[in-house]
Amino acid sequence: MRDYIVAVVGATGLVGNTILKVLEERSFPIKRLLPLASERSAGKFVHFQGERIPVKVLTKNSFRGVDFAFFAAGGSVSKAFVPYAVKSGAMVIDNSSEFRMDPEVPLIVPEVNGEDVLFEKGIIANPNCSTIQCMSALYCIQEVAGLKRIVYSSYQSCSGSGMKGLRDLDEGRYEFYPYPIRGNILPHIDAFLDNGYTKEEMKMINETKKILHDDDLKITATTARVPVRFSHCVSINVETEKDFDLEKIRQKMDDFPELVLWDEPARNKYPLPLQVEGRDEVYVGRIRRDESLEHGLNLWTVADNIRKGAATNAVEIGLECIKRGVVE
Q1: Is the pLDDT assigned to residue 42 strictly greater than 90?
Q2: How many CB atoms lie under 10 A from the CB of residue 247?
Q3: Is 158 in the active site?
Q4: Is 129 among the catalytic positions?
Q5: Conformation bin of residue 49: beta by default, left when phi > 0, alpha when psi is -120 to 50
Q6: Which residues pair with 125 in a beta bridge?
Q7: 232-275, pLDDT tens digit by residue?
Q8: Catalytic residue among 129, 134, 158, 321
Q9: Which pTM does this prediction carry?
């Protein structure tokens, strides 16, 4: 294994800075790190492996010689600059929604569909944060009993909106959200569409089908913003194709990589945002049969949306590319 030249676009932002931390924690084989950002970050530095590295201004010529380019600066930046990175020969791992539903671009949670990196054409998309944390548990259910229908209800933290969302929560203002978020819940994440759903809800619906390779899967979603700083929670109701042994599903989840079964109701043991903040695993609990369905069950997942929901999954995609020889 050789070392790689790695660029991080949006290196001074919440997700970009966390990508730097995860790259260091996971011992990603880096020969040289290139932190990139907009002109607003000119003169700033990032800290990586004990060094103070200057942030460079992103331009179309920034990717010469780069092996991996992690994009964490939003859809408009990805749309404008990803083509230059690909043309320069970099493997792009993009955190925005810009390329997720492109049929030519793999959408990957490595534990679930890591083999899809083999179909890359220079870009791999990192899924939506709330989608990522649901995939491992749903994959386990799919393997045991098949999936017929999914109902998502998400409770998403303010860090999902970046620093602006956190400021609204911490300072009791509503400059970013349309209403105060402190002491409140907003059933509204991203823009409303003509069908009455929000973009966030449709992301969860469409991305789930793509990752699980099932376009016929029936899915609905309601996403809400809650006054929590970090970690998203998603309540998932599932209708399976056939009957199942609940204990077999629980064991499958308990054995699955980076999925932590935290489910002892008698001891009030279930995943909470405060427990999960700062961790890379997805936690699952409240697993029980849905007694209103012939073949149904309910579960509750929690994950740190900035780490597993963004930065960690992106870095794991890069490591998957190295492991499978996609990037030599």
Answers
A1: no
A2: 9
A3: no
A4: yes
A5: left
A6: 94, 107
A7: 999 999 999 999 999 999 999 999 999 999 999 999 999 999 99
A8: 129
A9: 0.96
